[in-house]
Amino acid sequence: MTNFLLLLIIYIGIYSILSLSQNLITGFTGxxxxxxxxxxAIGAYTTAIYLVHTNxxxxxxxxxxxxxxxxxxxxxxxxxxxxxxxxxxxxxLGFGEIVKNLIIxxxxxxxxxxxxxxxPSPKIFGFxxxxxxxxxxxxxxxxxxxxxxFTLKRIxxxxxGRALEAIREDEIAASTMGINIVLxxxxxxxxxxxxxxxxxxxxxxxxxSVAPQTFDFILSVxxxxxxxxxxxxxxxxxxxxxxxxxxxxxxxxxxGFSNIFPPQINQMVFGLLLVLMMIYRxxxxxxxxxxxxxxxxxxxxxxxxxx
Length: 307
Fold this sequence. Notes:
Blueprint: H1 2-28, H2 36-54, H3 58-80, H4 85-105, H5 107-110, E1 123-124, E2 127-128, H6 134-156, H7 159-169, H8 171-176, H9 181-207, H10 217-230, H11 235-255, H12 265-280, H13 293-306
C-alpha cells in the first residue's frame, strides 16, 4: 500500500507539471490547445532515445527533451496561433496525431508500436536513482514541480503575464494597446511546451520504458480537464486538478477493486466527476484571481482626497 501511494504521488507530480504548463496556454492566454500529449511524447522519446543509445547524462537528456519540445511548440505555434477557438483546437489536434503517427512509423528510431524498453536509470550527481526506491523519485519529481510552479508564478505576475491575460480577455482591445498578439501567443505556447517536455523526460526515467499508446488524444483531453477542474488561470488549482484526476483514475487499484469492476469504470467515474463540476461549480475548484479595479480606484481617490 505504501509503495502504491508513493507511486500515486510521483504520477501526480508529473501530471502537475503537465497541467501547470497547459494552464499557461489555456488558463492564462485563453488558447484552446489539445496537443499537450504531443509535447509530452516528444520529451519522453527524446530522453529515451538519448539514454538508450548513449547511456549519457540525464541532465543532457532533460535539456534536449525540453529544447526539442520547445522547438515543436514554436513550429506549431507560428502557423496555428493566428487561428481562434475551434479552429485552433482542430489544428492542435492534428499536430498531436501527426506526432503520434511519426512515433509509430519511425521504427528505426522509436521502435514503432513496440516502444523503447530498458531505459537506464538516471545518475544524479553520481547517485543512481533506482525506480524501486520510490521515495527518492517522490523528492526528485516534486522538486521539478515546485520549480515549475514558482517559475510560472513569476511569469504570470510579470508584465508578460498581464499581457497574456489581456489577450485572454479581449484580443482586439489588447491589440489596440500595442500588444503583439501573435508573438505573445507563440511565446506562451513554447513555454508551455518546454515544461511539458520536462514532464515527458521525468516520465521516461521513472517508468524506464515508453510506448506510443500512452500519448494519445485522451491524454491531452485529460490534462485539459485537470486545468478546468482545478480552475483555469489558477496554478494551485492545476495541481489540485491533477491530484484529483490521477487519484480518481487509480482509485480502483488503490482499493483493490481493479479485478471486480471493468477497466471502463475509470472513465465513468472521471466523466461523472466532470459533469458534476460543470453543473455545480463551472469555474473550477479554485477560481481565477481577478484584480478588483473598483477597489483600487476607490483607494486611490481616498489617498488623493487626503492629500
